[in-house]
Design goal:
By secondary structure, the chain is an all-alpha fold. The protein has one domain (36-145). The protein has one helix at 2-144. The radius of gyration is 61 Å and the shape is rod-shaped. The protein starts with a helix and ends with a helix. 0% of the residues are buried.
């Protein structure tokens, strides 16, 4: 029985040592896995950070492009408004000159008509004077002959 007991003792010790080694290996394996996971997480975090920074730069560039496009469109609109204002000014000045000329022509036409009317009145007055003188002479003769 001593041999059996001794065999069992050796077997138990061997198993205990094997279990200890397995526990150490399991602990080391767990530590190794934790390190691997930590490294993988760090790599992925770095990738995400890089991708995020790239996207932020893209968004900044797009925002700058949009702002520049807006500024360009605003400048184009300002130029177009200035050109239209210049055209309108030129057109308005031409119309004002036309109106001045028309007013001057109308004033001249009115003056000409007034002059014509004055002459016509003077002629009629002269005719009436002559007729009146003729009638007065006729009446004088008619009175004298009675």
């Amino acid at each position: 029985m001593k041999k059996s007991f001794l065999s069992l003792l050796v077997l138990g010790t061997t198993m205990a040592l094997a279990a200890c080694d397995q526990a150490k290996e399991a602990a080391q394996s767990t530590t190794d896995k934790a390190v691997e996971v930590k490294e993988a997480v760090a790599e992925k975090a770095a990738e995400v950070k890089s991708a995020t920074e790239a996207k932020v730069e893209e968004l900044k560039a797009a925002a700058n492009d949009a702002a520049q496009a807006t500024a360009d469109k605003t400048e184009e609109a300002k130029k177009a408004v200035a050109e239209k204002a210049a055209e309108l000014k030129t057109t308005t000045e031409a119309k004002v000159e036309e109106l001045k000329a028309a007013a001057s022509d109308a004033t001249q036409a009115t003056a000409d008509k007034a002059e014509e009317a004055k002459k016509a009145v003077a002629e009629k007055a002269a005719e009436v004077k002559v007729e009146t003188e003729t009638k007065v002479e006729e009446m004088k003769k008619a009175i004298e002959s009675k």
